[in-house]
Amino acid sequence: MPSDYNTAIIEEFRANNGKLGGQWKDSRLVLVNTIGAKSGQIRTVPLAHLQQDGRIYIVGSAAGSAKHPAWHFNLLANPDVTYELGDGPIEATATLIEGEARASAWAEIVAALPFFGDYQDKVSREIPVFALTPGSQAPCSKG
């Protein structure tokens, strides 16, 4: 279940076709709808993203936490997702990016969203990067 803070962001995002006010006014947010690894329930999380080459890149920084965010494990267990950029949900497959592909994507992500580099500097774990590729038959829907 999303926190009250995330719930407010999700509701505002959906009510305003992806537009947010306040501190989030100029942010690049996407809503990602995953299936809970343990619960099997649809979970929605607002995340900063980079859109490039027909994909959405999301980062498991957990704001510099020592642990991966829960949605990371959801994507590993159930890679079929939907995401929202302000219109209806888009079906996609989430892929953990590793090796040279991750290094290349990471450089572009940090160039566009420098705070992710700051988060990586705070932790010893490698912060995971997922690519959401549109076009799968994802069972997640707006929830």
What secondary-structure arrangement, pairings included, does this model have?
Layout: H1 4-15, E1 29-35, E2 42-52, E3 55-59, H2 70-77, E4 80-84, E5 90-97, H3 99-112, H4 115-122, E6 129-134
Features:
4 helices, single chain, alpha+beta, Pnp Oxidase, Chain A, 143 residues
What is the CA-CA span between the terminal residues?
11 Å
Q: What's the CATH topology label?
A: Pnp Oxidase, Chain A
**What summary fits the major beta sheet?**
6 strands, antiparallel, barrel
Number of distinct beta strands: 6
Q: Can you identify the CATH superfamily? A: Electron Transport, Fmn-binding Protein, Chain A
Tally of domains: 1
The quaternary state of the protein chains shown equals single chain
Shape: globular
* Individual helix count: 4
Task: Provide the CATH top-level class.
Answer: Mainly Beta
Helix % is 25-40%
Proper CATH architecture = Roll
Identify low-pLDDT runs: none
H and E order:
HEEEHEEHHE
Rg over CA atoms: 14 Å
The order of strands across the largest sheet is: 1-2-3-6-5-4
Estimated structural class: alpha+beta
